[in-house]
Design a protein that fits this description.
Number of helices: 6
Strand order of the largest sheet: 7-8-9-10-6-2-1-11
Number of strands: 11
CATH superfamily: Bira Bifunctional Protein, Domain 2
Distance between the termini: 62 Å
CATH class: Alpha Beta
Number of domains: 1
Length: 246
Amino acid sequence: MSFDMQQAVPDALLPQMIRLWCDPVLRTGYENMAADELLSRRPEAWLRVYGWAKPAVSFGYFDTTAVAASIFPGEGIEYIRRWTGGGIVDHRKGYTYTVTLPAQDGVVYPPADKLYKWIHGALAVALQAGGVECSLLVEDAPDGGRACWASPVASDIVDPSGQKLAGAGQRRYRGAVLHQGLIQECEPADGWQQALAQALAPVVEEVQGAEPYPGFEAELAELCRTKYCTAAWNDESHGRRKPTIS
């Protein structure tokens, strides 16, 4: 499959440089969420590829731990509320990545469906280069429930039989874009991370080490403390609990 990136995002809005960070640290679920949010605040585009310190299941902003645990039960699983949307995702297998696009004065990025198509188009190119047969789903599949892989949507990546191989959730905040994605049910070839970065931007700068920029670890700990590890973030009502009527 050839994919014209301009079908989804005008060339003027595509990043000219992206920083690729294959995070060497296996982090807890909320450390991973905080790391992604911190990168979305940066003035450059990022592709982060990472793993998990513990078995984890993540769920979209408006889902709940109870629902996630009912779909993917198990001992010792971290149930993680994401800042992005999307369904409930089992991270005990597969490859997790994040793409961020920075806020820029005077720049309004295209709607989520266009960005989704652009990023998944680039990922499909990278997977195909490594021998994975795949394409973008043209339209939503029938609703299979809250489990992300049971309900592929338009521009998800599927194999020739229609099996979902990659999905994602997005968040747009103050002009920046955060795209959290997952590859499952296939084995990408070595170097798929670099191939994806090269499909997203003409210039790729690889970042080494546990800190993508100075001060990152301190910012990560603070964001976990003040947001992701608070009772408010993990409140099942997400701040929408109805008052009790006596």
